[in-house]
Amino acid sequence: MTYGPQPTNNGRNMPNSNPYAQQPYGQPYNPQYAQATASAPNAGAYQQTPINAMSQVTYERATHDAVTRTYGEMTIGLLITAAVAFITQMTGAYISFIRATGLIGILLVAGVQIGLAVYLGVRVMKMQASTARIWFYVFAALMGFTLSTIFMAYSLGTIGVALLVTAGFFFALTMFGMTTKGNMLKAGPVLLIGLIVLIVAEVIVMFIFPGDTAMMIITALGIVVFAGLTIYDTQFMKRVFAQYSSQGPEAIKRLSILCALNLYLDFINMFLYILRLFGSRD
Asked: Which residue of 22, 90, 123, 271 pairs with 166 in a disulfide if CB–CB is 3.0 to 4.6 A?
């Protein structure tokens, strides 16, 4: 069944057979009035404006709800990470695990984390949103398990200050990404190369040319790279929600998990670099 006015053979709409239907204030049908209305300038545009405006409002509301859902999922992931890290430190679970497994345990946890991140990125659109959410929370818990070691290197006050600075910086970057007219998505390949260079340089500095000055330079570079990635992932979030807006709420829920994971990783890495750069060692 096709809804809306049906065209005749000549492509025009059939006139209403009821001369009193849809006339202003129930007035009798007046051919001269109808002809004048149809021939008025921009008559069609005037009639379509409320519909287009309503569609735009609906689209903006749906996009706002999707973005809110993404930041909500990211926040829950961060809270899980913080809770697991604190509990792990209080119980000494990570230290006990490393003593029992050694280097194999460290590599195992790191491998599982990387595997989960890749698995979610590749399979998130092919699984239920609830399943993707569970895997994201598991990933956040594993991240908290490994991040518990920061309590042994930094004081609670230092960690709190670094967390507040990161939160403020992250908020400013995401607001910039949401409101700027510039297209940061074009910088994706450059940011990827910068991330690879950052990882390689950090490994070289750590094992071959250790030194506080070199590590501080690498740390500052890391903050810059992940600041760019935060803006990139914010604009990526807007783009994918626009592309998948017609696919239904289930697709939006899956994409919310994926975007939450990207922004979560940006936040965590930026926090660690800020903690290293501005934090004072105990």
From this structure: 271
- Residue 163 has a pLDDT of 93
In a domain, 36, yes or no: no
CA angle 60, 179, 82 (to 5 degrees): 90
- pTM for the structure as a whole: 0.76
Range of the domain at 223: 64-278
Inside any domain, residue 44: no
Token pair in block for residue 146: 């490994």
User: How much is the average pLDDT of 7-35?
Assistant: 40
Measured between alpha carbons, how far is 85 from 104 in angstroms, rounded to an integer? 21
The residue count for the chain: 282
Radius of gyration of the chain, Cα coordinates, nearest whole angstrom: 28
Measured CA to CA, the distance from residue 113 to residue 110 in angstroms comes to 5
Query: CA 143 → CA 46, 76, 80, 261, distances in Å?
Result: 55, 13, 9, 12
pLDDT in the model for residue 46? 37
* pLDDT per position as a tens digit, 195-231: 888 888 888 887 776 667 788 888 889 999 999 999 9
Spatial contact of 266 and 233, defined as CB atoms under 8 Å apart: yes
CB 80 within 8 A of CB 136: no
Q: Is residue 16 part of a domain?
A: no
- Which value, to the nearest 10 degrees, does the dihedral of the CA atoms of residues 107, 110, 111, 117 take? 180
Structure tokens that stand for 88 in this block: 């792990």
Does residue 239 sit within a domain? Answer: yes
- Total domain count, the chain: 1
